[in-house]
Amino acid sequence: MAAYQPIASRLTLRLQVGADEWGKPKLKSKSIAGVDYSADATDVLTVAQAIAGLLPYNLVEAQKVDTDRVG
């Protein structure tokens, strides 16, 4: 039977860096590798908000992206 085997996890911050000429938000992504695969969602969000607080941009979304091998 096949199963997932964790390879890596990263935190991706989606940041609003401005707006275009029509007022639509301009977004940029920043990724941080080495996140614990089993990290709790509340802890991941807390860290994302803390990092975003150091940046001059607004945090729009935080994502934990897991990479798994199937085997």
Defining traits:
71 residues; alpha+beta; 3-stranded antiparallel β-sheet; 3 strands; elongated; DUF1659
Written overview of the protein:
This protein has one helix and three strands. It has 71 residues and is of the alpha+beta class. It has one domain. It has a three-stranded antiparallel beta sheet, with helices on one face. A hairpin with a 5-residue loop joins β1 and β2. The termini are close together. The relative contact order is 0.38.
Low-confidence stretches: none
Give the overall pLDDT as a whole number: 96
Strand count, sense and closure of the main sheet? 3 strands, antiparallel
Number of domains: 1
Shape: elongated
Total number of helical segments?
1
Order of helices and strands: EEHE
Termini separation comes to 8 Å
Share of residues in helices:
10-25%
Q: What Rg, in angstroms, do the CA atoms define?
A: 15 Å
Q: Quaternary status of these chains?
A: single chain
Structure summary, number of beta strands: 3
Describe what is shown at a glance.
It is built from one helix and three strands, in the order E-E-H-E. By secondary structure, the chain is of the alpha+beta class.
